[in-house]
Write a sequence for this structure.
């Protein structure tokens, strides 16, 4: 009978090295098309390699399978939200909600301040809702359309949206990660939020300055766009009205009132369908093939589950007015499931824990401890492919170490959020990276370089750690 043992450090790194090498080759060959299926296969093959290494260390397949199931179960809420977001996007397009946002936004926003304005708007919405996902799926979709119509690079637009959305997500008491981090570290919510201001306020300030400089220098524009033609194309095809904004306002209010995301998004989707029948019956009939009751039913259902495209006399507007519906999210769900399979094998076999222990063993100062915490969180976002695991596992691992170093738990909770929460969106196969890429219609590799807040935050927390600034001690008299 094989005796189960902890994998060696070399064994633990074999699946990770295999994953990195194969993903690099894959992305180099397929480019943006890598997310169409080849990256998913790479993740499954990497999970198979991890399983072989684990079984060599004495683990049974049933144990690894249980780990996979547990990992996938942890992502089920995210998968359900993804399906609903697909339907919501379709009904909000057909009803004219998103076109109305684009229509009015083009008349208000100037290209020079658009990126800063987008980041600020998303910060406010995310603070109010506590969700970067909801922010991207509502105002984010509209801002992508407005920015593209203004001739701004879609990677920059998505970067501004996500920078603002993750700032709000981090600082909102309604956010799940903002509640999870202090729970793992052993501190309270508002102490955690106050402590985060030390790193978060400078990070978002630098981010806004960068976006302002990009806007004022004009380096964000891809070319001149005649907004009047776009406005005409939208108004000719849709009945534009301020009444349409009632639906997104209702969704935001429901989430602020602490209604769970899934029923709130379902209500938003159904209200979008009703608005489509009230405000855009001709378009619904066009999608459904006839103006009869059956045709209206078909048109509404297609916006919920399938791909719809609305044609105008303007090519750019046509690119903005399309949706994949619920079925358009299936590729992303496939990617998340594949990532969860790999993460499940790595965690249940103890390989992730073994690598993290090696990182901890190199800690010899407060700055190094915070830097290693950041590195561990980023590592879990890449390998476990889930921001919750990137907060929970390092939180458990480092909790006692911070106490032994006489560091108050809010130092750990701040570091978990500054790295685990914000870097998740930069990984294409992470649940967050895959989600936002699909919702915004921009590849992760295209927007990641412009997610300045998400890049600056972990660097800022490391800088503060080595500087020794605002590092709270458990016993202030003790060195």
């Amino acid at each position: 009978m094989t005796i189960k043992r902890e994998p060696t450090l070399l064994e633990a790194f074999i699946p990770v090295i295999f994953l990195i090498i194969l993903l690099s080759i894959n992305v180099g060959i397929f480019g943006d098309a890598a997310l169409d299926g080849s990256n998913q296969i790479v993740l499954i093959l990497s999970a198979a390699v991890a399983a072989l290494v684990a079984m060599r260390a004495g683990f049974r397949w049933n144990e690894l399978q249980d780990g996979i199931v547990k990992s996938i179960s942890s992502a089920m809420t995210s998968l359900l939200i993804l399906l609903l977001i697909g339907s919501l996007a379709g009904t909000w397009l057909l009803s004219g909600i998103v076109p109305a946002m684009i229509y009015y936004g083009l008349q208000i926003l100037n290209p020079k301040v658009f990126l800063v304005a987008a980041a600020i708007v998303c910060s406010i919405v995310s603070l109010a809702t506590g969700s970067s996902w909801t922010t991207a799926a509502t105002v984010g979709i509209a801002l992508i359309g407005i920015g593209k119509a203004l001739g701004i690079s879609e990677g920059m637009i998505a970067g501004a949206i996500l920078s603002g959305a993750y700032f709000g997500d981090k600082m909102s008491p309604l956010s799940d990660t903002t509640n999870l981090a202090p729970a793992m570290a052993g501190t309270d919510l508002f102490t955690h939020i106050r402590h985060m201001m030390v790193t978060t306020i400078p990070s978002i300030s630098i981010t806004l300055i960068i976006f302002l400089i990009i806007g004022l220098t004009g380096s964000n524009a891809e070319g001149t766009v005649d907004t009047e033609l776009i406005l005409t194309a939208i108004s000719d095809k849709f009945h534009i009205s301020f009444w349409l904004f009632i639906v997104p306002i209702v969704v935001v209010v429901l989430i602020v009132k602490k209604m769970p995301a899934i029923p709130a998004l379902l209500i938003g989707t159904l209200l979008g369908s009703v608005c489509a029948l009230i405000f855009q019956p001709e378009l619904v009939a066009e999608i459904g093939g006839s103006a009869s009751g059956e045709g209206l039913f078909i048109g509404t259902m297609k916006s919920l589950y399938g791909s719809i495209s609305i044609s105008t006399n303007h090519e750019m507007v046509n690119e903005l007015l399309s949706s994949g519906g619920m079925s358009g999210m299936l590729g992303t769900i496939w990617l998340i499931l594949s990532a969860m399979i790999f993460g499940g094998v790595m965690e249940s076999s103890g390989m992730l824990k073994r690598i993290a222990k090696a990182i901890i063993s190199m800690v010899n100062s407060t700055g190094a401890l915070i830097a290693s915490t950041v590195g561990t969180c980023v590592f879990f976002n890449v390998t476990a492919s889930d921001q919750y695991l990137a907060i929970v596992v390092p939180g458990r691992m480092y909790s006692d170490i911070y106490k032994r170093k006489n560091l108050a738990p809010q130092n750990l909770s701040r570091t978990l959020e500054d790295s685990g929460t914000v870097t998740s969106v930069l990984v294409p196969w992470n649940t967050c990276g895959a989600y936002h890429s699909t919702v915004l219609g921009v590849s992760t590799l295209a927007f990641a370089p412009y997610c300045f807040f998400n890049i600056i935050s972990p660097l800022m927390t490391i800088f503060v750690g080595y500087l020794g600034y605002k590092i709270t001690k458990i016993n202030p008299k003790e060195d």
